[in-house]
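Request: How about a record?
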Amino acid sequence: MLEEWIREKVSGGNGASFLRSKKGQYLLIILVCLGLLALVWPVSNINSNLGTNNAEQEVVENYGGSSSKLNQEVESILAKIEGAGEVDVSITLASNGIKTYAANTRNESRESDESDRQGGIKNSVERSSTQDIAVSSGSPLLIEEKNPQILGVLVVADGARSAELREELTHATATLLNIPVHKVQVMPRKGGE
């Protein structure tokens, strides 16, 4: 069918008559369907690890900002410490955390041995790996979500002029966020006690 159309075009036949024929209409319908299929076909952009067979993908979204919800929680707790007064907290995060998604991995391997007339043997191996994220109810299936890494915490408190209270606020913050003490800095508020 395609050969006939090409021969007709090359020999200078009328293209309009071909499109009016049954074969031409079928060919046109098939081409339109293939074009629509190419537009609708889902395209996934997945980083795959070809060396491993695990079914997980990690996505880290770096933004280097502070989490206001976490700030408010820590402020609320530290303000309850006797003598702290009004407390402001700024937490600097390295990322939004790590999210691990379930994935389906398919590995294929094909081997072929060919020999030529001179007695030479050609051995070829073809390997391919495909990884698709597993989806549940239209959204990716989340396996694990790790908390973000905390780079540092600044606490500004009314009662932080006292060395004893600064130490208490430092240890309370470090314990609350499960971070080392050297990542916490407590400062007195300007015009405080």
User: Anything to note?
Assistant: Residues 22-40 form the longest helix (19 residues).
